[in-house]
Each structure stands twice: as structure tokens, then as C-alpha cells.
Amino acid sequence: GDPWGQGTTAKDFVLQLRALEVSRINLHINSPGGYVDDALAMYAAIQQHPATVTAIVESVAASAASFVALAAERVLIAKNARIMIHDAHGLAIGDAKTMRTLADYLDEESDNIASIYADKAGGEPGRWREAMQANDGVGTTYRGQEAVDAGLADALMAIPQKRNLVPMRAAALTRNAGRTMSQSNLDKLHS
Fold first, then answer.
1. What is the sign, positive or negative, of the torsion defined by CA atoms of 62, 65, 71, 74?
2. Minimum mean pLDDT among 6-15, 30-39, 92-101, 127-136: which range?
3. Distance (Å) of CA 113 to CA 62, 70, 76, 116
4. Are residues 156 and 76 in contact, defined by beta-carbon separation less than 8 angstroms?
5. How far apart are CA 36 and CA 57, in angstroms?
6. What per-residue confidence (pLDDT) applies to 186?
């Protein structure tokens, strides 16, 4: 879930994931993030599912979505996509004691998240915590190959070769004096 009420809740995600009786799951991610607790529930559900899960970061896996992706056995990222990490955020109203309590809680959550990055990518959680606090607290963004180099993704997404069938159809029509051909015959003609 997210603070704006537009994301997928952990409850819905976990129920739908548990209902899947498949051997492979491709988990496509394009998310600015959401609540840490929801993301941790999603993370655990992915890890517990018996299917082989591949996370595919198509545009962005930011904030809490960044570590949801890491629950998968394999993480692929588009060349121009990004994984963005930062310390946990929170909001509180209250006195100084309340604010100190929130600060301690956020440090604990951030340390936990840093350990997830370290488990996937290697290195010490303290190093990941530094990356989460970099850029004046904004965090660090890893785009495409940078995410692979950092160990947050396993590989760039393969870009399939696209076949342009329009010229083949035109050539087939020209060669066959206007007769129509089935797609399978077109494929045979141009293979």
C-alpha cells in the first residue's frame, strides 16, 4: 500500500500471490514505493512462495518497492529503469519524546532494509545505510547497469529482436501477384 491509497495493499498482494499455483512468476515492478510494513509483508510472501520468482523492474522500483524486488530469485532491470533506495520516512505529531521514539524506530527500520540490500548485493549493511542516506538524505538512484554493477539487479532485461512484417507482407504480395498468404507461409518464405 501507499500513503495515497492508489497502490496495491499487502493484504491483496499476499492473498493473490498465495492463490497462484504456478512454477514461475514474472513480477513486473513499476512503483514509487509505499509503506515499509506492507512491503516487508510482500517481501516475505514472495520468498515463501514455491514458484521461481523473477522481478522485472520496467521503470522504477523506488523506496519500499526497491526491496520488494529483492525477494525474487532473479532481478532484471530495463536499461533506462531505476532502483532508488533511501532511509525509511515517517511522520509524527507530538512532543520531543514522541519525535525521539520515531527517530529510533526509523533507524531500526532503515537498518533492517539495509540488511536486505546487503543480503542481495553483498557488502555490509552499514555501507548500504550510507547509500540510503547519501545526497543530503535523498538516497541513491541506480539506473540500469548501475543497479547490476551494485548487485541490486542480476542483469539488464534482454531486448528482443523485433521482426518487421510489413515489408515481408508487401514482398509476398508482389511476388505472388496479389494472392494472399497465411502468416505461416509468410514466415516460411522469409525465414
1. negative
2. 6-15
3. 13, 11, 20, 5
4. yes
5. 19
6. 45
